[in-house]
Design brief:
alpha/beta; 358 residues; single chain; 6-stranded parallel beta sheet
Length: 358
C-alpha cells in the first residue's frame, strides 16, 4: 500500500512509497482504510523534532475512514463502519480516567513507541500511534470511534484533532463567559476553531491575531470581531479593553514568545489558555511577583481539555445545527501524492486546513 514516510527527523519532505505494510493486527485491533486526513501543525512539529517522535515514521493523526477488519474481542465495531481516528484514546481504568480527565490518559502514548508499519527496509512508526498519511492503518479498537453516516470523511477527519482541540479550549478549558473579551493568537485550523468556540459561548469581542492576511480575513468570516497582525495587538488591546487586557487570551502557536505575549495581553485576574504544542526546551519565563500579583489563570488545554468522545458528539451536533462551520476550514485539497504541496501550504500559512484525500 501507499504511505508518506519521513526517513529522518529534520527532513522537510516526505517520500510517498508503495511498499509499506500496516502491521500489528490481532486481538483488540482494527484495520482501517483511511479515506481523508487533515494536515495538522503537530505533524510538522514531529517532523522537525519539536515534538518527540521516533523515526522513520508515517506522519498524520487527524483522519477518518472505514473499518476493513476487526480482531478477536472487538464487539463494538464491524467491517464497513465509518470511524474517526482518535490519537489519544482513553483506557477508562487509569487514575486520570477515573478522575474524569480522560484527555490526560497516557495509554495512547504507549502506542507511539510501537511500530505499526513495515517495509523491506525495516519497521516504521505511526505518528502519535496512528499515522494517517497511509491508505491503511492498524490501531487499537479504542482509537476508532464510530461516526454517523451523514458525516463526510473530510469533516470527520477535522473532528479527530484540530476542531476538537480548538473548540474544546474555549468550551471546556476556558469556559468563556458571555459578554467577555477574547484574543486568539494564531489562526490556523485550531485557532479558528477557538474563535468559533468563543463565539458560541457568547464572547462580545473576539480579536484574531495572525501574521498572514488571508488567515485574518478567514477569522472574521468565522466570528472574530476584529483581526490584526501581531504588531497591531497593542492597539487592539487599547481599543477593545481600554488597555486593561483581555478576559481570555488563547495561545495557539506553541512558542514561549507568543505565550509571553498572551500573558502580557491578559488582564489581571484573566485567563491565558495555552493550546499550542511546543518544544520541551522552550521555556516560558514569569517572575514570581507578577505571577502572584496579577492573579492570572494559566490553563493548558490538552486535546480540548475534556472527554474526547463527548466532544466528538457535541461537535457533530453543532455542525448539524449549523452552529459551527467545519467545511469552511478546508481551504485546500490534495491527493496523497501531493503531500509535500500540503506541507508547503501549512508552512506558509496559506491553508487553514488541507485535506489529503486518500
Amino acid at each position: 500500500m501507499r504511505a508518506a514516510v519521513l526517513h529522518e527527523i529534520g527532513q522537510e519532505k516526505l517520500e510517498v512509497l508503495d511498499d509499506v505494510e500496516a502491521v500489528g493486527f490481532g486481538p483488540g485491533k482494527v484495520r482501517v482504510r483511511v479515506r481523508a486526513t487533515g494536515l495538522c501543525h503537530s505533524d510538522l512539529s514531529a517532523m522537525s523534532g519539536v515534538l518527540p517522535q521516533p523515526a522513520p515514521f508515517v506522519p498524520g493523526h487527524e483522519g477518518a475512514g472505514e473499518i476493513l477488519e476487526v480482531g478477536d474481542g472487538v464487539r463494538q465495531l464491524k467491517p464497513g463502519d465509518r470511524v474517526v481516528l482518535c490519537w489519544l484514546p482513553a483506557c477508562g481504568a487509569c487514575p486520570a480516567c477515573r478522575r474524569g480527565q480522560t484527555q490526560l490518559c497516557l495509554a495512547g502514548f504507549m502506542n507511539a513507541g510501537t511500530p505499526n508499519f513495515r517495509r523491506s527496509g525495516g519497521d516504521l512508526f505511526g505518528f502519535a500511534g496512528t499515522g494517517t498519511f497511509a491508505e491503511e492503518v492498524v490501531v487499537d479498537a479504542g482509537c476508532a470511534v464510530p461516526i454517523p453516516d451523514d458525516v463526510p470523511f473530510d469533516i470527520a477527519a477535522l473532528i479527530g484533532c484540530g476542531v476538537t482541540t480548538g473548540l474544546g479550549a474555549a468550551l471546556n478549558t476556558a469556559d468563556v463567559a458571555p459578554g467577555s473579551s477574547v484574543a486568539v493568537i494564531g489562526c490556523g485550523g485550531v485557532g479558528i476553531s477557538a474563535v468559533q468556540g468563543a463565539r458560541l459561548k457568547g464572547a462580545a469581542e473576539i480579536v484574531a491575531v495572525d501574521p498572514v492576511a488571508s488567515r485574518r480575513e478567514s477569522a472574521l468570516a468565522f466570528g472574530a470581531t476584529k483581526a490584526v497582525a501581531p504588531e497591531g495587538l497593542a492597539d487592539a488591546k487599547q481599543q477593545v479593553t481600554g488597555g486593561e487586557g483581555f478576559d481570555y487570551v488563547f495561545e495557539v502557536v506553541g512558542r514561549s514568545a507568543t505565550a509571553r505575549t498572551a500573558y502580557d495581553n491578559t488582564r489581571r485576574g484573566g485567563t491565558l489558555v495555552v493550546v499550542g504544542a511546543g518544544a520541551m526546551d522552550d521555556f516560558l519565563q514569569l517572575n514570581m511577583f507578577e505571577l502572584f500579583f496579577d492573579e492570572k489563570r494559566i490553563l493548558p488545554s490538552m486535546y480540548g481539555g475534556g472527554d474526547v468522545l463527548r466532544s466528538y458528539e457535541r461537535t457533530i451536533a453543532l455542525w448539524r445545527a449549523g452552529r459551527v462551520d467545519l467545511a469552511g476550514l478546508i481551504t485546500h485539497r490534495v491527493p496523497l501524492a501531493g503531500i509535500n504541496e500540503a506541507l508547503d501550504q501549512m508552512r506558509t500559512g496559506t491553508a487553514l486546513r488541507t485535506c489529503i484525500e486518500i
